[in-house]
Design brief:
single chain; about 475 residues; alpha+beta; three-stranded antiparallel β-sheet; 14 helices; 12 strands; globular
Length: about 475
């Protein structure tokens, strides 16, 4: 018996029509950028490369999606997610074959979109690392992901753009069915248990360095290289690794912020300027320099990081954007997860930088939950945790999990860039919210504590 939410897979004609309607709603400048990129693509070369890689005769290439801006796709276009990712800077072409037994798409990487200019070498890394990550996940886990058929990160290739040719996943985004009343609690629990197993597999992976996965072109083996940029906007990065330790990585983040503040303080403090024009002054710039210096001293010396050894803190792989839109379920049985997609910017790092809660599904809820819904969420969270606890790395005890939470606060502090938080006062309040509860005395905090005291938030702590 089929599930009450079972439905047919949308035909390509419907997807191309939806894409055409979507394009009419884009600003003219973005449409022009898109048309220009499409016009310079060598479709004959794309067809030849795909036919050689797949085997068979291509009967048509149809554009069915593109993501110019992260997370800007209209709700009416979401069904296209059965083929591709949401929010990636890609043009997506369905490649049809005869007989119709091969399901293939080409993801053409776009050099624009999102209001951010990404250097070419980083765009190349984004494409090659995603392809390598998909291959690694398929070879080393049971997590379902699209099969990579061919890829080329060089934008000057014969196609005219960097691309990944991959398996087309005939699935529906979880976003489309999760809130439907016909999806029962038991249905949701089955989905959550599958996702928890996938997350547990990722947490259990182990790598020698922090960075992103690449395929070494000479040895054909997997290597850890620089962090590939995600599709989400991020602060400019001068140093992208790879790094041997979490301390090294965090130091590089804060050193980036300090260098930006030295070289271009006006840009570094743009959030302060936008919110309060009087707040950006020589004294403010000096105060941020002192704050960054204190954070760097903290990262270099804080003792808690020394507990992050391989016995309980392996460097593991994570999905960079695990949301309902990047989880595809079966059209015929929406309780069966078919694939996790959109691995652009996937990276290896300490587990305490990972999402270990079910928040990634719940955070998309718009309306407040009723008591009955809250109870269901608690039960789903218990189902999630039951699966994860069975698969935790050996050293991940409850005490170490607490340590991990505090170290994740340090990571947020370092990565955000305090100047982006609009004011020194906001930064002080954020640090104070967890500083007093730090699990052990540590003199590495002295400069930070002086900063908190200056802003009327002296922590009640001892250093010895």
């Amino acid at each position: 018996m089929s599930h009450p939410l079972a439905r047919a897979i949308p035909p390509i004609e419907e997807l191309t029509k939806q894409h055409a309607e979507y394009m009419t709603r884009l600003p003219e400048s973005e449409r022009n950028d898109s048309f220009a990129l499409t016009a310079r693509l060598n479709m004959a070369a794309l067809q030849r490369i795909t036919e050689n890689a797949v085997g068979g005769t291509c009967t048509g290439i149809d554009k069915i999606y593109e993501g110019l801006r992260p997370h800007s796709l209209a709700a009416s276009i979401l069904p296209q997610k059965c083929l591709v990712t949401l929010g990636g800077f890609n043009q997506i072409f369905n490649i049809s074959f005869q007989p119709d037994t091969k399901h293939v798409i080409a993801r053409i990487n776009m050099p624009f979109g999102g209001g951010s200019v990404v250097p070419e070498d980083q765009r190349r890394n984004r494409v090659s690392s995603e392809a390598a990550t998909l291959c690694w996940v398929r070879e080393n886990t049971t997590i379902p992901v699209p099969e990579v058929i061919a890829f080329d990160e060089n934008p000057d290739n014969e196609v005219g753009a960097a691309y990944i040719i991959e398996e087309r996943i005939l699935g529906c985004p979880l976003h489309d069915v999760w809130s439907d009343p016909m999806l029962t609690f038991e249905d949701r629990k089955r989905i959550v248990q599958q996702l928890a197993d996938f997350q547990a597999q990722l947490i259990s992976t182990s790598f020698p360095m922090i960075g992103s996965i690449f395929i070494n072109k000479e040895t054909k083996q997997y290597d850890i290289g620089p962090l590939a940029p995600p599709v989400q906007l991020e602060p400019p990065r001068l140093r992208r690794g790879p790094w041997k330790t979490a301390r090294d990585e965090m130091k590089s983040w804060i050193e980036d912020h300090m260098e930006e503040l030295r070289n271009d303080p006006d840009a570094a403090l743009s959030s302060c300027r936008d919110r309060n024009a009087e707040d950006v002054s020589p004294s403010t710039i000096s105060a941020f320099h002192a704050l960054y210096s204190g954070i760097l001293t903290l990262i270099e010396n804080v003792k808690l990081i020394d507990r992050c050894d391989d016995s309980w803190c392996p460097l593991s792989l994570s999905h960079p954007d695990l949301t309902r839109n990047n989880i595809l379920v079966d059209y015929n049985d929406p309780t069966r997860v078919m694939a996790l997609i959109d691995w652009e910017g996937a990276n290896v790092g300490p587990w305490w930088q990972r999402e270990l809660d079910l928040t990634f599904i719940r955070e998309e809820e718009i309306q407040p939950c009723s008591p009955a819904e809250e109870l269901e969420w608690d039960q789903l969270r218990d189902a999630w945790n039951d699966v994860l606890k069975e698969r935790y790395p050996p050293g991940l005890s409850a005490f170490n999990a607490k340590i991990g939470w505090f170290l994740s606060r340090l990571t947020l502090l370092v990565r955000a860039g305090c100047a982006a938080w609009s004011s020194l006062e906001n930064t002080a309040e954020t640090i104070a919210s967890w500083r007093t509860d730090w699990p052990e005395p540590d003199p590495a905090f002295k400069q930070i504590d002086e900063f908190l005291t200056l802003h009327g938030l002296p922590p009640s702590v001892e250093y010895e």
